[in-house]
DNA sequence: TATTGTTATACTCTATAACTATA
DNA sequence: TATAGTTATAGAGTATAACAATA
């Protein structure tokens, strides 16, 4: 069997996974970044600034992103109670339905991708990847469990 | 230690890796897709149509992509000898220098990311991911070893 | 007629800079 | 003055449809 080096294997698997998310998002006329936005909103109502930090984007980019998500009926801006300059972004029922559907489809894609693996192999890569992610999050001062799609 | 499930771990690692490629590309005012383009051209001179298939884009998107890469001096269009409708896209010396530099930086990022792992863990995930990628490529009729960044 | 590539058009996504309302 | 968010502007990236040149 031919073998990839570790770098190539990780690069290729990441392109594959991004592509899966994009395809699932496209089923709802959405994009990868829209899916990430909805994913964050599943369990939070962040401000625009907080979203910018979580997504690694400028606040003006997030403002437009939220505009387009709102136009599709997936999110709404809720005025902040404590600071009249600020808004909180919340998922609508339609938005929750979309993100749930994308997440379910994506889980199915991963299920199929990993079908050739034994339970032991699966546990092994989950364990190793988790350790890598935790170490990376610690080094960069990020809370791994409050980020990305989930 | 907290644990992610397999789907979350794979999703997060893929976002992390894409981000690494993007940051390295940005060191040369490039993007992820420009880097993928240059990566493909490292060992081939494809037509626009072939590039469209390899990148999963419409040929008109590739036409613009190549325009912008050419404007930066990274690629050039070479008239085909056999079909006067067709062009082949080739890397320039400047383009090769950019893609080599991005690849080297990315390899360094992965090195650092995997620093916490033992040699055994490293071999294990490389082996498992390679098997997954080969199975996926076979099922989708793709030649794994003629694709993506490399 | 069919194929290769480009162009016109429209939209999403992104950053920078300037602006407003509020703090 | 400083901060939260929006808007104006510019550019990359993408797809669809129409087109010219060639097969």
How would you describe this protein?
- The structure is a homodimer of 150-residue chains.
- The first copy, chain A, is mainly α and 150 residues long.
- Chain A has two domains: 6-114, Arc Repressor Mutant, subunit A, CATH 1.10.10; 118-145.
- Chain A has six helices and two strands.
- Chain A has helices at residues 6-26, 32-41, 48-55, 59-71, 93-113, 119-139, and strands spanning 75-79, 87-91.
- Chain A has a two-stranded antiparallel sheet with strand order 1-2.
- In chain A, β1 (75-79) and β2 form a beta hairpin.
- In chain A, α1 (6-26) packs antiparallel against α5 (93-113) and α3 (48-55) packs across α4.
- At the A-B interface, α1, α5 and α6 of A face α1, α5 and α6 of B.
Features:
63% helix; mainly alpha; 2 strands; homodimer; 150 residues; DNA-binding; 2 domains
What layout of secondary structure does this protein have?
The structure is a homodimer of 150-residue chains.
Chain A: H1 6-26, H2 32-41, H3 48-55, H4 59-71, E1 75-79, E2 87-91, H5 93-113, H6 119-139
Antiparallel strand pairs in A: 1-2
Helix pairs in contact in A: 1-5, 3-4
Chain A binds a DNA duplex (23 and 23 nucleotides) through helix 4.
CATH superfamily of the largest domain in chain A: Winged helix-like DNA-binding domain superfamily/Winged helix DNA-binding domain
Low-confidence stretches of chain A: none
Q: Give the strand tally of chain A.
A: 2
Q: What is the number of domains of chain A?
A: 2
Q: Which percent bin holds the helix content of chain A?
A: 55-70%
Strand adjacency order, main sheet of chain A: 1-2
Distance between the termini of chain A: 34 Å
